[in-house]
């Protein structure tokens, strides 16, 4: 008989929580909301990055349309930037476009240039604003290029300007113009 009363006392003590469950619930809910908020911001950043990658793919597929325009351009760097930026603006991209253009020194039977297009867009945090984080920049890029001339007897057209006058970076500005920097090239190029 004493055994039963001892168990009843233990069960009675176990049943009294004195507010501990409420504290555990509040702490758990806070942690849960924190991770859901961070997951939401990271998910939205990932979606924005994928949208930028889709725009990159769109411009990559248009390169065959641009190919001859760049090949026979007097300033292929500037014209590459203009064609790429126009394609992106037509697809409602409102971020920053930066085009790196680099062509090797000309040879009569050979021509090679490469282009890197970099897209940057600001993302405004949703949840992390609570902790003072306002925005982050999402940047994606893709590379492309062309080679002309296969044989020794090929004659390849070259612009009259020296390659140093159009090699460099072209960066879009909010007013619709672009900045040219002849010394700005990617380090891993």
What's the SSE blueprint?
Elements: H1 2-15, H2 20-71, H3 76-90, E1 96-103, E2 111-124, E3 135-148, E4 168-172, E5 178-181
Antiparallel strand pairs: 1-2, 1-4, 2-3, 4-5
Helix pairs in contact: 2-3
Please summarize what this structure is.
By secondary structure, the chain is α+β, with helices and mostly antiparallel strands. It is built from three helices and five strands.
Task: Give a verbal description of the structure.
The chain is an alpha+beta fold and 189 residues long. The protein contains three helices and five strands; from the N terminus they run αααβββββ. It has helices spanning 2-15, 20-71, 76-90, and strands at 96-103, 111-124, 135-148, 168-172, 178-181. The chain has a five-stranded antiparallel sheet with strand order 3-2-1-4-5, with helices on one face. The protein is elongated.
